[in-house]
Design brief:
With 251 residues, this protein is mostly helical. The chain has two domains: 30 residues; 216 residues, MetI-like (MetI-like fold). Helix 8 packs parallel to helix 9. The longest helix has 38 residues. The protein starts with a helix and ends with a helix.
Amino acid sequence: MRSNLRIIIGYIVAFALIVVFWALASWLIKSPALPLPWDAIEQFFVTLPDTFSHILISLWRVIAAMVLGTVLGLPLGLYIGRSERADVLAAPLLYLLYPIPKVVFLPILMVLLGLGNAPKIILIAVVVFFQMLVTARGAAQAIAPESITSVRSLGASPLQIARHVVLPSSLPDIFTALRISIGTAIAVLFLSESIAGSTGIGYYIMNAWSRLDYVAMFAGIIAMGAMGVGLYEILNIIEYRVIRWKHITKR
C-alpha cells in the first residue's frame, strides 16, 4: 500500500510540475501554438467520447506489435546469445541491420499491405523485434558460465537450462528493453498514423494540427502520453509478478 501511495504521489507531483512549466512557457511565448495546459486538459475530457475510439485503435496496434516483436525476438536472441555458432552467423547481420532506421520501410509496407492496421503493426513489431533480439542476446551472453555448468552437472537438459537458468537470469534486462520499446513503439506509431490512414491518436493529433486547432492537438498529445503511462504501469505489474525476487532483494 505504501508503495502504491508513493507511486500515486509521484505521478501527482510530476504532473503538477509539468503543468507549471507548461503554463510558464505558454505565458512567455504567448502563441496560440502553445495553449495553456488547463485548456488542453479540459479539451481532452470534453472530446474523450470522440477520441476514445482513436485511443483504442492505437492501443491495439501498439500491444499487438509489441507482443509480435517480443515473441519473435526474445527466444531468438536468447538462442543466439548462448550459441557460438549462431552468434558467428547472426552478429554481422545484426550489425548491418540494427542501425537502419526501420521507419524508412513504412512506404514499402504501405504499398504492399495498404493503409490499414497491418503496415503499422508490422513496422512497430520490426522495431521491437530488433530491440528485444539485441537485448536478449547480450543478456544471455552475460550469464556466468558457472551457473550453466552447475545445472548441467545435475543432469539438466538444454531445454531445462534455458527455462531455469537462461530465461530467469535475462528477465531484468528483458523488462528494461520492453520499457524502452514502449517509448519507441509509441513514437513509431505516431509517425505511421500521421502519414497513413484515418484512425488512431496520431492521426487525430495531425488532423487537429492541420486545422490549426492547437488545443485539440495538445489534448491528443495528452491522450498519447496517458496511453504510454498506462502501458508502463501494466508492464511494472507484470514485472513485479514475474520476477518477485528482484523486488524482495531491494527491501
